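As a warm-up, study this chain.
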Amino acid sequence: MNDNTHGNNLIAGRNAVLEAIRGGREIDRLLICHGTEGGSLTAIIAKCKQRGILIKEVSPQKMDYLCGGAVHQGVAVMIASHEYCEVSDILDLAKERNEAPFIVICDEIEDPHNLGAIIRTAEAGGVHGIIIPERRSASLNMTVAKSASGALEYMKVARVTNIANTIDSLKEQGVWVFGADMDGQDRHSFDFTSPCAIVIGNEGKGIGRLVAKKCDGIVSLPMYGKINSLNASVAAGILIYEVADQRHK
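Now compare it with the structure written out below.
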């Protein structure tokens, strides 16, 4: 692999790197910044040696360049692209756990920090999987992995060609689909204990018109201040825990 490879092929930061190793990702090599020591680095090196992963020391300047400005804490791993799953894998996981499917659909979330934050909250909130579109969406790159703080290793993510068609398929399989938008009903009006999916829209445009039409209901969050919308990952977090609270009462 070319040492200049970065972006989708790199995960930086000690926590994210350690979880990538624990999660069994296909790792090409471990990069350690010259002079880095202490903390979790010993465990990271030991696990890489156990798996026969190449360990290479690089200069601080080289590490900064490879990480593209991300905070790396002196450690990064070069990997293959994260493996996406099928939507059926998400439903199968729910079945294995004997739980009603709980899915988050990201309709053109473009900011990798937002997608990473959604993945992190979803994993903590008991979501079985996340669905993203192939186009006009952040992919599972280094920034997403870093923002997810290791949660990406435990969350199934399916990438589909058409969100609207996927919603139709989910509904045929008994999943209720709810879109998040300011022109809807209060979240407390809905029963999320049945199989359900929450659609979170684009940071600027919200959920697409066709996608909104496919939804069984539109969920809104009350705004008590002077602004009329929330950050996508914050809205997702509130709704994820609304579902979790209803299911774990």
